[in-house]
Amino acid sequence: MKKKIALVTGGFTGESVISLKSAAVVEKTIDRARYDVYKILIYPGDWHFICSSGEKIPVDLNDFSISIGDEKIKFDGVFNILHGSPGEDGKLAGYFDMLGIPYTTCDQLTSAITMNKGYTKAIVHDIPELHVAKSIQLFENSPLNGSKIQSELQLPLFIKPNNGGSSIGMSKVKTWEELPEALEKAFAEDKQVLVEEFVSGREFSIGIFKGKGNITVLPATEIVSSKEFFDYEAKYVPGVCEEITPGRMTEEEVERVGRIVTKVYEKLNCKGAVRIDYFLQHGTGKFYFIEINTVPGQTETSLISQQVRAIGMEVKEFYTQLIEEMFA
Hints:
Structural class: alpha+beta
Shape: globular
Low-confidence stretches: 230-234
Helix content: 25-40%
Radius of gyration: 20 Å
């Protein structure tokens, strides 16, 4: 008998647009011989499923079910492709935990921690061979921030919302005059902001997932952007950046990166597929951790999809492994 899978998408943030694109790819790629898939759209105060007839069916939040005609449909598991809040920050995970429904992504605690860039770095910083840029975490847009940053950090700087995604609200600051506007922009997206020193290096993004009980490190993608950094436009507008999969790394670098990211996955108690962004510093080759994404994009051109295909695996099989792992 086929398992009933809820494909959750939508969201409460600007990333909902990307979430819908990811869900469309998962919906058409997932193995329909094994799973009955129901796309559940989650918006503030509006959780629903749309029937083939176009009828909007509300979700019963008491047990996360839907009723189509006389049939009440309960789900065996959830394929979570909701970027940002509440799918990536632990809120949905906690809800599904209380209902006893398994899901494809990290648990509530890991999701909440990894959504916070500063807290994540504090946990992973002592992993052997891993480095983090010097940074300050700000909790309010105070007039005192400027002098604190100037006394503790050196230009250039990256200013980013601590809990955001898709590089929304992020800036690169080259002069102190640019700092106030960059802080304003970041605080408009989040109540916490991370200010960190710029690391000059080659940028990569690498997928790691657990399937059939084993952790698999996918080939890294090298990001060669025509922009100052891998911002929202570079991520989602075709032609703005070049993505090379597998990225150009030596055999030693491939092995070292694999060791480091596996330790990150294990130390943060990750589940399903995650994507880790990192720099290899110019001159030294040192691995600098940027951030982890626990609900990585699944669009046709997303990095994870490229990396899965690079190891000769069909994306459909990849999705099957993620789904089956949540039942293991």
